[in-house]
Amino acid sequence: MAQTISVRGLRKQYGDVQAVDGVSFEVDQGEFFGILGPNGAGKTTTLEIIEGLREADGGEVTVLGQPPWPRNKKLLPRIGVQLQASSFFERLTAREQLQTFSSLYGVSGRRIDAMLETVGLTDKADTRVEQLSGGQAQRLSIACALVHDPELVFLDEPSAALDPQARRNLWDVLRDINTGGRTIVLTTHYMDEAEILCDRVAIMDRGTILKMGPPAKLVRELDAAVRISLPSGALTEDEARALPAAEAAADDGVSLTVTTHDASPVISALAERRALEGLQVHGATLEDVFLELTGREYRA
């Protein structure tokens, strides 16, 4: 498969801080690629270098077969960028906002209407941008990044500060965009977002990539325990610990939780005891992988 992005040994330093320290990865054509990491991991700096907004101190970057720096005007019509903090022109409606962006690329009016429909803002076309909700404004920001029909789209934390309903709506939009053949590079703090949307993810911290691969593969490699929960009182803790393959059991007065690396014997034993009512199985997630690699301490 053709490579849309190639990054080799990328470095960027600000004073004494090594923001990006030897990062290397590739993104294939049509791939939905995620860059994950805590605050200060180097995600946004990496993205801005690839987009051609910052000059790297070292390493090589090619985007669609061309270097993005010095600022490559040939790439601009082929990429779309939605920045972490988006600003709109004041007092313009959603349609007027898109018209302003599209005029920079010579895009027709039909394309503007199509983009409003794509991001679900047709009924808000004549609403001023300051009157849009947070989710609607984010969708408009993505429409502005897509109005010239780019091959490659960069999205820097597009669902930040959105409520759960708005986030889910945005995910549907992004899936449709990717299904249409565009390559998408996403940075996000939300592990569930990356797990649902991304074909592959790179987990960054302190300027380096700690691990990279499909979310499901990274979760499997973690080899984390499975938690099987039952309503409290279904079994005693001692009975739960005696179940085949059970490693630990705890009852907090609401749920009895059995921990194991092999759920099948535990569930079979519970079935024999007719104790399956209310049973829930909780496996590892990408968030567990993230915390295992980056640590659990809070970072402001």
TrEMBL record:
GO cellular component, one term: plasma membrane
Keyword list, A-Z: Antibiotic resistance, ATP-binding, Cell membrane, Membrane, Nucleotide-binding, Translocase, Transport
GO molecular function, one term: ATP binding
Coiled-coil segments: none
Compartment(s) where it occurs, according to its Swiss-Prot or TrEMBL record: Cell membrane
Membrane topology summary: Peripheral membrane protein
Domain annotation ABC transporter: ranges: 5-231
The keyword DNA repair appears for this protein: no
Keyword Transport attached: yes
Family label: Belongs to the ABC transporter superfamily.
PANTHER family, per database record: ABC TRANSPORTER ATP-BINDING PROTEIN, ABC TRANSPORTER ATP-BINDING PROTEIN NATA
Descriptive protein name: ABC transporter ATP-binding protein
